[in-house]
Design brief:
The complex is a heterodimer. Chain A has strands at about 5, 10-15, 20-25, 30-35, 45-50, 50-55, 60-65, 70-75, 85-90, 100, 105-110. By secondary structure, chain A is an all-beta fold. In chain A, the strands form two sheets. In chain A, strands 2, 4, 5, 9, 10 and 11 form a six-stranded mixed β-sheet that branches. Classes of the chains: A mainly beta, B mainly beta.
């Protein structure tokens, strides 16, 4: 079982829909990252959070440390949001905050 | 401020050869981390460099090695290439430990091993 599990693996939506991508992890963490990867490979950091909720434009990220779960929400989705969204966690054991463990990603396709 | 630049963008090698990939860090960042991403998979942490020393490593064999230079740029070297080394190699820079700080990624170097 992977330390970081994302769901769904694939998601297709119509423009304007509200999107939710989920991330569950099995270890104690010091931080969780949400990343966006477009075709061709480049990765952009969307959020880093360790508690509560963060918002940036149409994107919202939440985390529940007790339940070891995070969600990424996209409001009013647009075709340019089509990308792979990746969750990554930094374990809080043994001073290993240099290390990130990644989920496999969620492929989001938003149709016009 | 400049972002993270990786070179080369694509390269093809044969089994047994050696490869060097390069990465600049974003202005103001002192830490560089490297990741391997196989097709259809999430990235995997290779190692991190801070103050020109490796200070964290994932589950990769010693034939994966690196350097960091005084200007914080970095190299990833892979010796004795194997077919399974074919992947996208990503580097990221940060102000401090990779897990605990916001990362700026490069566009990656796609390595094909034949």
């Amino acid at each position: 079982k992977n330390e970081v599990e994302q769901s769904p693996q694939n998601l297709t939506a119509q423009e304007g829909e509200f999107i939710t991508i989920n991330c569950s992890y099995s270890v104690g963490i010091s931080a969780l990252h949400w990343l966006q990867q477009h075709p061709g490979g480049g990765i952009v950091s969307l959020f880093m959070l360790s508690s509560g909720k963060k918002k940036h434009g149409r994107l919202i990220a939440t985390i529940n440390i007790q339940e070891k779960h995070s969600s990424l929400h996209i409001t009013a989705s647009h075709p340019r949001d089509s990308a792979v969204y990746i969750c990554a966690v930094s374990p809080n054991s043994g001073g290993s905050n240099y290390k990130l463990t990644f989920g496999k990603g969620t492929l989001l396709t938003v149709n016009p | 401020e400049t972002g993270v630049t990786q070179s080369p963008t694509h390269l093809i090698k044969t089994r047994g050869q050696q490869v060097t990939l390069r990465c600049s860090s974003q202005s103001g960042h002192n830490t560089v981390s490297w990741y391997q991403q196989a097709l259809g998979q999430g990235p995997q942490f290779i190692f991190q460099y801070y103050r020109e020393e490796e200070n964290g490593r994932g589950n990769f064999p010693p034939r994966f090695s690196g350097l960091q230079f005084p200007n914080y740029s970095s190299e990833l070297n892979v010796n004795a290439l194997e077919l399974d080394d074919s992947a996208l190699y990503l580097c990221a820079s940060s102000r401090g430990a990779a897990g605990a700080n916001v990362l700026t990624f490069g566009a990656g170097s796609r390595l094909t091993v034949l």
